[in-house]
Amino acid sequence: MKQRKDLFIKPGIMAEAAQTGRGKHWAVEILIFFLIAIIVFIELIYFAMLIGLAYGFSRPEFWEIAKSGAVNESSVQQLILGALPLALPLFIMLEVFFLVAAVVYCTQIEKRSMRTLGFVKKNFAAEYLLGLLTGLALLAAAHLLGYLSGNYAIRLSSQASVATLLFYFFAFMIQGMSEEVFFRSYLLVSLSKRYSLPVSILISSTLFALFHVFNPGTDAAQLFALGLFGVFAALTFIRRGNVWFAGGLHGMWNFTLVNLTGAGLEDKYRISVFISKISNENLHVVFLAAVMMTAVLVMAALMLHTRERADAAQAKTALPIPDTDHSIE
Question: Where are the domains of the chain?
Answer without folding.
Answer: 12-313
